[in-house]
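Structure (tokenized):
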């Protein structure tokens, strides 16, 4: 599945919900399914600044693809991590750099998140793009 197809699939999933309370719950449920994040990965180099909650993101490059691992101490932020992973995990650096987060506006996340949560989401996206650019170089 391409990143564009992953974004379209995500939008289709959210279309079944009639209100934002249900969408928030779905995001939280997605976050509960994140893989375990080892404590030894929680360091200053993996911590993402700009988030209201604590967020850590680790990555590995294997066979030309970037694999992201992330966690947060907040349920909604963990869900936002899961949303981002659906689009950007297991992609080549070039795919990541070329994939604009059009799903944010299409889902309405930019309107329905608090300013601090929105800042955190953009900080996580910034880290994803930074990693991809560094790995592509």
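Design, position by position:
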């Amino acid at each position: 599945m391409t990143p564009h197809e992953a974004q379209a699939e995500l939008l289709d999933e959210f279309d079944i919900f009639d209100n934002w309370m249900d969408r928030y719950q779905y995001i939280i449920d997605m976050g509960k399914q994140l893989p375990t994040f080892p404590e030894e990965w929680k360091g200053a180099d993996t911590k993402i600044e700009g988030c209201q909650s604590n967020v850590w993101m680790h990555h590995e490059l294997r066979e030309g693809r970037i694999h992201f691992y992330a966690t947060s101490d907040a349920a909604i932020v963990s869900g936002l991590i899961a949303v981002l992973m659906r689009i950007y995990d297991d992609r080549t650096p070039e795919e990541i750099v070329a994939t604009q987060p059009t799903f944010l506006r299409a889902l309405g996340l930019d309107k329905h998140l608090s300013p601090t949560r929105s800042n955190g989401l953009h900080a996580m996206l910034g880290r994803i793009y930074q990693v991809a650019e560094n790995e592509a170089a």
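Reviewer-requested clarification: The chain has a mean pLDDT of 94. The chain is about 55% helix and 10% strand.
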